Amino acid sequence: MLELWKSRVRTHQQQQAKYLRLVFNDHFVLVLIILFGAGLYAYSQFIRQMSVVPWWLIPGLALILTIAATFGRLATLVEAADQVFLLPQAKNFLKYLFKARRYSMGLPTVVLLLLSGASWPLLAKLHQGWPALLTLAIGLLVFKDADLWMQLLMLYRVKVARGFNRLTLFAIVFIAVLLGLYLHPALTMILALGLDGVMRWRLADWFATAPLDYDGMIQSESDRMGRIYRFYNLFTDVPGLNGQVKRRKYLDWLTAFVSKKPANTWRFIYLRGFLRGTEYSGLYIRLTVIGAVILALIQQWWLALLLGIVFIYLVGFQLLPFYYQYDEIIFTHLFPVGQAQKQRSFQRLVAVLLGLETVIFAAAALIVGQWLTAGAIGLAGLVFVAAFTWWYLPLRFNTLRK
Amino acid sequence: MSLKVEHLTGGYGQVPVIKDLTFTVPDGSIVGLIGLNGAGKSTTIKHLIGLLKPQAGTINLNDVDLAADTDAYHQQMAYVPETPVLYPELTLREHIDLTIMAYNLDAKAAWERANQMLKTFRLDNKLDWFPDNFSKGMKQKVMIVTAFMTNAKLFIIDEPFTGLDPLGVHDLIEIVEQKRDAGASILMSTHILATAQQYADRFLLLNNGVIRADGTLADLKAQFNLPSADLDEIYLTMTKED
Q: Can you name a GO cellular component term (chain A) (predicted)?
């Protein structure tokens, strides 16, 4: 069982490493650094401008820390076939799952420590010293430990108590952190240690008789991996993972803009593919809305301009794989229409989408009265879109074809 | 005229899967392409539709060379693949519209032909559905409709009968025969020998990447020296040869 766990972790990590290399390609790292810098700058500005502690600071911080503690699911790395082949090993599976639980603790630990560190200036504003920081971090980690025990228990058909679920747990975490921030974070740590201690003390009894719920375990693991792959799929092509298709009849009026003639064959496909597929349209809408909100909140016109261009670039860059969406369908190679039309149609789609995004960004800035930002984004954005579509895209598709 | 293949050698990598194939598919005839799994049927078809580049040899359809003018060649042919492939985001109606656009067909006449076939296949009430969610047999029918509504001179059909219900098989054969009588050439690969023997005019027996025999059933009987045999027996004899 322990050998099995080791080999699973090895293949899992190799897989993740492969995808992470693709996610953090050089373009994206550059964008991340810019966003990170902008975030830090905004955060420091926010702290400097805060002369009196606003009433929402403590509840807000407690909420953020609680939500951060919910990150990190139990990674069991089980596969569908385990249900059949490892059925006789059900009793031994617990050893495997203990390993899995310890492994799952790793990433949340890093995240929670970083976040606790980031809340240091805010704690200072609340007149708390380093003991507060330390006890708060320990409290959060111990709560996470309890959460993972709970997730592990839920893989078994065991009745512990009414209301024993993650929602209740995180309600307790929220209250504990809130109390800790108002009084002293040592209180959070004491509450966490108490809860975790009671759970660990009772564990042996709970596991003694409980049968393993294979179905539920496999289902939740495949959901978890599905979420991770959907995230990767934003950056690269994950085999075997295609977005769903929805009919969206209410959007059919948009398709009328492309008349049905041979020269429009590819536009016909791309337009419908974009409107009805959830993958690329979802990405476009998400990033456009987030971008518009961020731009509306930023005061400095040059920062807004920079971020606006970054967002347009992000959307454009992530639309690129859509170009190859239909290469698997043999007919796109058999149609008596040339490949040149395919590229022209795709450029047109990208130009329209990014142009629309630019207009939305400019409008968002106008609504909050930032006419300088609106003008800058409108002008520079359209220039950028033109360069991206008619200079960068052909360059990229041609180098890839060689 | 018709499809002429000369000295075609090709495959996926450096090692050829099919070797020096020379054959024709004449106008107004149905040719059955027959061979074991792995004999090279699908590879041959992939070359004929231009998905693979030949290592040697030429493919010529009504004086249009595949390598020289791919678009003009494709304009004259239609293809039904072994496993149906459809656009997940397009409805049945839009698949037909797309075919009309891609092949530059006259919309009215093409829709008339399509509607007739859709009615035969009992798909005429599903025009606004996504065919990607249909059953295997129904998807196959969609592929058949979009292929046979074109004015192609050559139809290449890969394993058309698997997944079709008996009525669908019957209807498909009727459509194919109509096209043949109108002068089109049809190349059909299949394992269902009884059906092939009944409807194909000529046969192309492929074994280990080479053509073992070529001709009408009478020709095959003469070549194998089996005057009273049917296609099934000839086929078994061929497979035992090596």
A: membrane
pLDDT (tens digit, 9 = 90+) per residue, A301-317?
A: 888 898 899 889 989 98
Q: ipTM higher than 0.90?
A: no
- Asked if A262's CB is within 8 angstroms of B104's CB, the reply is yes
Q: Do A314 and A194 lie in a common domain?
A: no
What domain range includes position A298?
Answer: 249-401
Q: Are A213 and A331 found together in one domain?
A: no
B89:A262 CB<8 A: no
- A390 and A282 within one domain: yes
Substitution target from B87, B111, B133 for chain A, most A beta carbons within 10 A:
B87
| All domains of chain B in start order, with CATH | 26-36+80-240 (3.40.50.300)
Under-50 pLDDT residues of chain B: none
Q: CB-CB: which of B79, B100, B101 is closest to A334?
A: B79
> Nearest CA of chain A to the CA of B231: how many Å?
32
Instruction: Answer yes or no: do A242 and B97 touch at CB < 8 A.
Output: no
> Which residue in chain A is spatially nearest to B97 when comparing CA positions?
A260
- Spell out the SS3 assignment of chain A: CHHHHHHHHHHHHHHHHHHHHHHCCHHHHHHHHHHHHHHHHHHHHHHHHCCCCCCCHHHHHHHHHHHHHHCCCCCCCCCCCHHHHCHHHCCCHHHHHHHHHHHHCHHHHHHHHHHHHHCHHHHHHCCCCHHHHHHHHHHHHHHHHHHHHHHHHCCECCCCCCCCCHHHHHHHHHHHHHHHHHCCCHHHHHHHHHHHHHHHHHHHHHHHHCCECHHHHHHHHHHHHHHHHHHHHCCCCCCCCCCCECCCHHHHHHHCCCCCCHHHHHHHHHHHHHHHEHHHHHHHHHHHHHHHHHHHHCCCHHHHHHHHHHHHHHHHHHHHHHHHCCCCCCHHHHCCCCHHHHHHHHHHHHHHHHHHHHHHHHHHHHHCCCHHHHHHHHHHHHHHHHHHHHHHHHHHHHHHHC
Nearest chain A residue (CA) to B106: A261
Nearest CB to A330: which of B81, B89, B98? B81
Q: Which stretches in chain A have pLDDT values below 70?
A: 26-27, 233-243, 400-402
Domain count, chain A: 2
In a domain, A9, yes or no: yes
For residue A273, being part of any structural domain is answered with yes
Q: What is the pLDDT of residue A237?
A: 61
pLDDT score for A26 = 67
Asked whether residue A213 falls in the same domain as residue A254, the answer is: no
Distance from CA of A399 to the nearest CA of B (A): 21
- The predicted structure's pLDDT at residue A239: 65
Read off the pLDDT of residues A80-120 as tens digits, 9 standing for 90 and up. 777 777 777 777 788 888 899 999 999 999 999 998 888 88
Residues A287 and A210 in one domain: no
Q: Do B102 and A335 touch (CB under 8 A)?
A: yes
